[in-house]
Amino acid sequence: MLHYSLLRLSLACLLILITVSATIAASTTQQPAATKAATRKATAIVQIGTSPVPVGTLTASALSSSISSAVLSLCPSVTQTTTSTTCKETTKVKIPKIIYISKKLLQTDGELVVQIDSSGYNDTAMLKPLADMAALSISSSATGANCRKEDYTVIEGKIKRWSSSAFDTTLALFPFHKRDHPHAETGNKMTLCNAGHFASPQLYSDGWRQAPKPGPSNYISVAMTFQTGSSGELTCAFIDGLIESAEAILTPELLGVEQPLDGMIDISCKGAMSYLGG
After folding, report:
1. Does position 220 have pLDDT exceeding 90, yes or no?
2. pTM
3. I need a surface site. Which of 23, 62, 199, 246 has the fewest CB within 10 A?
């Protein structure tokens, strides 16, 4: 009888042990959806070029809207679903009247040249957010340490009138002028900015790693050059402030998630564009 009771007790303990083990295993393998989502890798990546491009006094919303308009003019709406739609990658859009300083003289005939290096998108609704994100990234880089006051010289000449008491009446009717030798006025200053030479917002779907050609599902890589060259270095201190603004454009709904996630958008400075899986 005692042996039978001990056997029943052993079986009961074994059953409890198996039950507890199964519960622990379930809790470790079946993570809540929120936990899985929190550990999910970046859904959006934004890369910004580190080579400086002079943008002069064209900064903030004026620069952003100019670039966004240029990009949208190069990228058509989606009209088919067989392949990704691409922008016109051989066409360039020029933004005129960029101020710069050459040989200490102020010039106003600079041009920013905007071009699409690579692109691919499957929904017209993705187009404007991508264009706006690229434009915001470039305009955000033209701030802080990437702007500086520069000295320039103004060449001026004063006009004098020849005068004679004997010919006052004649000179009043037919004035004669001559110009002094031009003289330089130094000490003038103007704040001019540089921006990153490209911006590449890239959106990745859930199954992008399993695709035949892994890579971004929707992306636009916008390159920018300046006709007279560039100078100085570009710093990336602007990125912290850019992330918050990026979340207003690359919304969770656009990225296919229910709520904002830590690390959902990855923004970085790069010497050249690159893509995950590529």
Report:
1. yes
2. 0.73
3. 23
